[in-house]
């Protein structure tokens, strides 16, 4: 008899299309009702209730009660990280459910991953912090440095409150659209909350997409600067990824990149 973690149980829970759609809907960080999740999964309320019971029993979901209503949410950030990592793995193997559509550019630019920032902006945030010595990266582990704490404290991040929590301060999370790591953990959540609370960013209703106001864009770029060379490399990587997904590899247009760079300044 095999011993150790039962990955088959988790795989069977996630592998059902209806349940996977429910989990993806909850990745946006909002708690949803059984009726809402039934609509997302394309099943009846009775069938949805059965799926939700299995996900809750498997430790992937939790319930939140408010008055007579019951809401469902991901059990914790580890579940969100697992789903995001699986999305990245599926994309890297060419297992895509649809081609790039009108909503994809915004989703790839900035989105919610459970409770932290993902997409191009999420990866840029971590890249900038690592480049400036604010975070040290080794394999898949991230560590905040004294320089990083001093730097981000100047922007109003309360590290005393963050360190008092049992949750890891910094955690690496594989980004499914960028195929690279973005920042999760209590610091990742705090940095996203920083922009949301100031009204400089908002989550689009009914979507995981995060949009920034003009002032929010300016402050984000100021807080997380990155070199032009690094941006060029990132643009090349993204062009290759988009080519893989469309089946038509596209050469990197450096002139177009320079025009976009000038327009963003």
From TrEMBL:
One BP term from GO = response to lead ion
Q: Name one Pfam family in it.
A: ParD_antitoxin
User: Which Gene Ontology MF annotations are present?
Assistant: cadmium ion sensor activity; DNA binding; DNA-binding transcription factor activity; lead ion binding
Q: Which InterPro entries match?
A: ArsR-like_HTH, HTH_ArsR_DNA-bd_dom, HTH_Metal-responsive_Reg, ParD, WH-like_DNA-bd_sf, WH_DNA-bd_sf
Domain HTH arsR-type: where? 1-94
- Record-linked PROSITE patterns: HTH_ARSR_2
What protein name does the entry list? ArsR family transcriptional regulator
Taxonomic classification, please?
Bacteria, Pseudomonadati, Pseudomonadota, Alphaproteobacteria, Hyphomicrobiales
